[in-house]
Structure formats: C-alpha cells, structure tokens
C-alpha cells in the first residue's frame, strides 16, 4: 500500500470512524505494460463487470469473456467462456455457436481505480488501465502530460472547523493547458479559470489564480500548487489515474520558507480530503473548439489565449484538528526542491 493510501485510510478512521475508502475501477482497456500483445477490456456498471480478454491458444489469437457481480467492492471472480464460431468481418450475419466454459476462473483484485492483480490459468499478473493518448510524448516524464485538460474537484473542508463543519464540501475547477519539460523537473501549468464554463486560462486567471504541478517519482504522487489568494497557497498531493484523482490538500501560508516540511508534511495544518475528475479534454483547453466538451462561446478568444501559452516540449529529461503526522518520504530533499521550484514559477507569467 502506498503512503498516500495509508494516509487516506488513517484519515477516514479519524473522520467519524468510517469504513475504508471505496473506489470504482475505471472502465477501459487494461494490460501488463511489461507483457505486450494481449490485454483485457473491462466494463464496469454499478457493481457488475463484463470482461473480454484478447489472448492466444494453440490455434492463434482468441477471445475469452467473463461476467458477474463483484461480491465486495474491490474483487471480481468468474468462470471464463469462449465461442469458436460467429460472423466474419464484412460477412452476412451468421449465428455463432454457444459460448462454453474453458474450465478456468479469472479473478481480479482491484488495488485502485487503475491498478489491479489478475489471476487466471494459475498465474497472477499486475495489470493497469492503458493510457493510449494522454501521455503521448516519451520525452515528457510519466504522470505529467496526462494532466492536460479541465478538472472538477471536490474537497472536504470539515477539519478546518467553524462553519466548514456545517458546509464541508468545497468545489474547485482547475485547467492545465501547458507542459514545460525544459528543465530537470517537468511541470504541467494552468490556472483556476474565471468561471466554471470558460474552459481556458485568461490573463486575469493567470495573474490571480495560476496553478502548476509536477510528478514525484520517488513518492508516486503528483503535487499541485494553486494561487488561492494573496496570502495562501492551496497545495494538493494526489494519485492520478487516467481521468480521476484522489488524495488530500492543505491551505499553506505563502510566508513559509519550505512548503513541504512546514506545511505539506507538517501536522500544523489540517488535511482536506480531495477527489477530482477530468471534465474537458486536452484538445479543448488548448484551443480546439471542435474537441469534446467544447462550448460554442468565445472560440476566438479561447484559441488566442491558448496560442499565447503554447510552449513546445523539450527532449530532456492552522488548526488543532490537524490529522497528518510528518510523512516518511523516499526523497524529501528532491521533492522539497521541486516544490520550491514550482512555487517560484507561479506569478512569473
């Protein structure tokens, strides 16, 4: 279990002794990136799974299928089926033979929204949701490029106390439309937009609420800093899938000299649980008004704003209710340096 997952489980226990955090695995194509050539299409609706596996037998390529409900929120197990006859490509419809069990079970133990262990044929392999096109440039470090797009965020502010206990949930919209891979740390950059519909970073948004983040390979998390107001940073640390993320946030004073040690890894500031979902595509926030989620309003202003921020990628590598103890990081000095570099970027454009 990752340190972030452990933190969230501890946080859940402290917040009203609730059960461990639930999640819904992402539907899509899953695979083992170390074993190309076969994969699994997993469709999840409520607690029902339909899975199709593209694999091989002595006769060549073949398809297997399994379906059923998950007996608990993280595990699926069902017999494998296949059928040998059916309609060929471009041919008139021909009723296929009846599916038959092949004598094997498939079991999937989901570890997160995008990671799982799959067991079949007596072998267990790690699988993950396939990122086809979100991370398309191999020169950009992992878990960086896929942030391009618009994200809707929900934060639980109840640990701040006061009125937040009565109205604990706060919404956020973040847009990331630019990657800077020119230095040792690769950053994704953007803003909190001026409203929830515009889908772009105007100069006003960049001047007042710019945002940036980076991937910490040592910890396996993304750290994001948002310019909340003249005195406060809103700092997230999250794990991201392909279209969702979860983790926590903290409100950190700008007067601190080291955000990592004095705020993010300090017990002096309350932990705010956070979840987020991608709500518009990379193409849309970068100015393509024919992209999915495009709004008809302001196409020229949107395209112009995106063009002004288009940087090509380089081919180089306070509260008593505080709930988080200092973290044991794999590379605290490196993460602190990257976070300070991130903060230094904000407000410079």
Structural class: alpha+beta
N-to-C series of helices and strands: HEEEEEEEEEEEHEEEEHEHHH
CATH topology of the largest domain: Lipocalin
> Compute the gyration radius: what is it?
23 Å
Spatial sequence of strands, sheet with the most strands: 4-3-2-1-8-7-6-5
- Give the strand tally: 16
Assigned CATH architecture of the largest domain: Beta Barrel
Average pLDDT value? 83
Report strand %: 35-45%
Task: Give the class-level CATH name of the largest domain.
Answer: Mainly Beta
What is the CATH superfamily label of the largest domain?
A: Quinohemoprotein amine dehydrogenase alpha subunit, domain 2
Separation of the first and last Cα atoms: 39 Å
Our count of helices gives 6
Report what the structure shows:
The protein contains six helices and 16 strands. The model is unreliable at 8-20, 296-301 and 305-325 (pLDDT under 50). It has two domains: 28-129; 136-345, Beta Barrel (Lipocalin), CATH 2.40.128. It is elongated, with a radius of gyration of 23 Å. 15% of the residues lie in helices and 38% in strands. The protein has 349 residues and is α+β, with helices and mostly antiparallel strands. The chain has an eight-stranded antiparallel β-sheet with strand order 4-3-2-1-8-7-6-5, with no helix packed on it. An eight-stranded antiparallel β-barrel has the order 9-10-11-12-13-14-15-16. It has helices at residues 3-14, 203-209, 259-264, 282-285, 299-308, 332-345, and strands at residues 28-31, 39-45, 48-57, 60-69, 75-82, 100-110, 115-120, 123-129, 149-156, 169-180, 187-191, 210-216, 221-229, 232-240, 244-253, 272-280.
């Amino acid at each position: 279990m990752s340190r972030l997952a452990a933190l969230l489980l501890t946080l859940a226990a402290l917040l009203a002794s609730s059960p461990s955090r639930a999640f819904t695995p992402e539907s899509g194509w899953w695979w083992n990136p170390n074993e190309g050539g076969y994969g699994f299409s997993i469709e999840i609706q409520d607690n029902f799974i339909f899975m199709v596996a593209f694999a091989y037998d002595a006769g060549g390529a073949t398809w297997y299928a399994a379906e059923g409900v998950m007996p608990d929120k993280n595990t699926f197990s069902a017999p494998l089926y296949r059928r040998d006859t059916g309609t060929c490509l471009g041919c008139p419809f021909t009723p296929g033979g009846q599916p038959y069990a092949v004598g094997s079970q498939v079991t999937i133990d989901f570890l997160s929204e995008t990671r799982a262990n799959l067991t079949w044929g007596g072998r267990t392999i790690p699988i993950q949701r396939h990122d086809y096109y979100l991370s398309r440039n191999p020169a950009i470090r992992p878990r960086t490029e896929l942030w391009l797009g618009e994200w809707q965020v929900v934060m639980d502010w109840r640990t701040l106390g006061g009125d937040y206990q009565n109205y604990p949930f706060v919404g956020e919209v973040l847009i990331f439309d630019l990657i800077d891979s020119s230095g040792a740390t690769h950053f994704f950059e953007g803003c909190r937009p001026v409203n929830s519909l515009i889908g772009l970073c105007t100069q006003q948004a960049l001047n007042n609420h710019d945002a940036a983040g980076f991937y910490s390979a040592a910890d396996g998390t993304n750290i994001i800093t948002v310019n909340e107001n003249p005195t406060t940073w809103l700092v997230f640390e999250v794990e991201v899938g392909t279209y969702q993320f979860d983790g926590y946030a903290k409100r950190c004073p700008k007067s601190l000299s080291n955000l990592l040690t004095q705020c993010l890894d300090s017990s002096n500031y309350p932990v705010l649980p956070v979840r987020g979902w991608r709500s518009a595509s990379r193409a849309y926030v970068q100015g393509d008004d024919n992209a999915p989620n495009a709004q008809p309003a302001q196409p020229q202003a949107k395209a112009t704003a995106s063009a002004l921020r288009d940087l090509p990628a380089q081919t180089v590598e306070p509260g008593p209710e505080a709930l988080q103890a200092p973290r044991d990081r794999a590379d605290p000095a490196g993460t602190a340096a990257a976070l300070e570099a991130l903060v230094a970027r904000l407000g410079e454009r």
